[in-house]
Amino acid sequence: MQGVDIQAPTYAWSETHYLPIGVVTPAYKAAIYAIAAAPVNNATWRGFAAGEVLFKGASGQQRGEEDWAVTFKFEASPNATGLTVGDITGISKKGWEYLTVLYEDAELGTPKKIVPKPVAVYVNQVYGSSNFSGLGIGS
């Protein structure tokens, strides 16, 4: 049996915010870094449910003596419930979790053919999650 890579449905966007000089401190930069290390939203944010938004980083530059222009990048992937794989039903996964299936050979039809049959489904958390309020750009 052969497989194929399928692009999952996502929505990508960026937002540029102009932050006062006093906001972009070493502590603020550390907060952004901490969210980048656990980049999935742990609560509803910008209308997306927990688990749907991936923070893809931020970049910025100081503009004179007044403020910083900081661009934040995000990608959203929908949570899914009620999934079915073979005879396994009621599967739920968050947008940035990874679903894998364990198959075993089974006999099917007449004449008998050996075919893969799903026997287990695993939902794996790939990224840690964070509270995006630490980005300081609203909810």
Topology of this structure?
Elements: E1 11-20, H1 26-37, E2 40-41, E3 53-63, E4 67-76, E5 80-85, E6 88-93, E7 97-108, E8 113-125, E9 129-130
Parallel strand pairs: 2-9
Antiparallel strand pairs: 1-4, 3-4, 5-6, 7-8
Can you give a write-up of this model?
This protein has one helix at 26-37; strands spanning 11-20, 40-41, 53-63, 67-76, 80-85, 88-93, 97-108, 113-125, 129-130. Helix content is 9%, strand content 52%. The chain is mostly beta strands and 139 residues long. 16% of the residues are buried. Strands 1-4-3 form a three-stranded antiparallel β-sheet, covered by helices on one side.
Name the descriptors.
single chain; 139 residues; mainly beta; 3-stranded antiparallel beta sheet; two-stranded parallel ribbon; 9% helix
Mean pLDDT: 94
* H-E string: EHEEEEEEEE
Order of strands, widest sheet: 1-4-3
Outline type? elongated
Describe the main β-sheet briefly: 3 strands, antiparallel
In short:
The protein is mainly beta. 9% of the residues lie in helices and 52% in strands.
